[in-house]
Amino acid sequence: MQTHRLAAVLLLSPLAACLVPGTASSGARHDAAAFYATTSYQGASFSPDGSSLLVTSDASGVFNAYALSLADGSLTPLTDSSQDACFTLGYFPGDERVLYTADQGGNELNHLYVRLPDGTVHDLTPGANLKAMFLGWSGDGASFFALSNEREPQAFDLYRYHFTAAGAGKGSEVAPGFRRELLFQNPGGYDLAEVSPDGAHVALVKNVSNDDTDVYLARTARPGDLVHVTPHHGRVQHGVADFSPDGRTLYYTTNEGSEFDSVWSYDLVRRTHAPVFAADWDVTGYSFSQDGRYLTTTVNADARTIVRVFEVAGGREVILPRLPAGDITGVSFEPGKARMACYVNGDRSPSNLYVVDLEQGKHERLTDALNPAIDEDELVEAEVVRYPSFDGLAIPALLFRPQGSSSSQRAPAVVYVHGGPGGQTRRGYNPVIQHLTHHGYAVLAVNNRGSSGYGKTFFHLDDRKHGDVDLKDSVWGRRYLESLEWVDGARVAIMGGSYGGYMVCAALAFEPEAFDAGVDIFGVTNWIRTLESIPPWWAEFRDSLYAELGDPALDRARLEARSPLVHAKNIVKPLLVVQGANDPRVLEVESQEIVAAVKANGVPCEYLLFPDEGHGFRKKENRITASEAYKAFLDAHLGGRLD
Asked: For 431-446, how does the pLDDT look when each residue is reduced to its tens digit (9 = 90+)?
């Protein structure tokens, strides 16, 4: 399910001396490899016999598919890629075939693959220069739905894949035992968000601008008849949540009349609307289990995730057992049974997988993701803080204080900026931040104006003001750090990935004395080029992106004025730039040119290029190399030693 709260997520990324004394048992300081010696897990699909869970893990150093035994927690590899990350989508209903997705070297051109029980793998979406996405299983368990832009790069069409060669519907055999049919041809300009369990209806999202979206409904048998589900006045954002298990009701999100997203229902027969679920924060999830027995709601509460589970029949809330502190994520249910799998992620604990018996209220932990060489007591818990910006606006942030820091042992600091625009730094284990705090750095992860999760007014405060008001929020983050007696206010760097990387370069170019160094991780430096090279599969978001950032054909002067590369002559502070060669969002040339320009100023500038990565680093060895580079650079230019 998707809420489409933020259509313009252009640049999000998965980031993640006398040393500060830790606990008495901590011993020598850990290197970056120790913080990445955690084992990452995601996804959880119960096997048909209930004996194992299909998960994705980087136990080998590259994400692959595994069967995790519920009896002893052992992992059995199902894929063995040493190059391209593989991410599981689920066991097939009723058998042990596995559906998974992978791209090529981080280029984001994902294909869908089936692994048969004998280990044979087939590409179900063959072809060059196409992107495919899984949309869900059918209600009868005999097919699944997928999107592909093979017909038109800028529009995703809906296909139905039948599991047997003699499956119903027209289409050609794409692999032994699989036939597919074109179920709905995208007329263009729409995001196909959800399909009903019977495949009879598809819900679409139309992005009018970055603060105005609409939901439409179409019958797959009559694709030309679009029903406008969310007619409204003014600018309102809507998104698709889910169809009911019987396919008679569409649930959608809206922020009409409120700062935050709530959930409404639309009866497909009566064509009536009704409020369903609301909270004091954004409702980010509302979805049904595959068998229709359970309903899960998710709320983004001040950078934390709050999950509730309800029985669909009767609406009774299921009281979950007391799990360890942290966010519950990745919820899935065993079809026809009362077992739920989920992850729990905390600041000091990577995601661990649990199985919960919903009838008996019992739970069992299946994984131990944290490196056993690291004690949780050596890690740092984030504190949610708010500090005033230049105009008095309260800016939410997460503050990580290194152990042992005090007024007599003041810590150098890093202002950490998330991706986006419109992203949010949230609670949870972050190996980059924990590595830095472990070595004595304070980290202030700012959620500058324009970040999601704090209401629509806050979200739109930076529209067409990027590199200005949002940058000032980061600069005033430094001022906040300077006010803390345990921080060395004379040694503060700025660091971020993707849009956060843009903020780093913007800070050094537009506020040259505001920070003492910068770490740019695949950040935009030339808005004109970035907006003119938007990947074709983002065509339906283009208007939203232009509304937030600017249209390069109409706003060229302003976009150039806020492009760090154009003003690189102003950069006088050291810069580290890290880039993936296969990045389709922020092209390699962005980083190459800013590095050359800064070096031409006679300013220290380092460049780290990963030839086998894209927008975000998926290989563990590369993440370790990058994390060590961040620390080494900060040590060199801030000094990793406390006063």
From this structure: 999 999 999 999 999 9
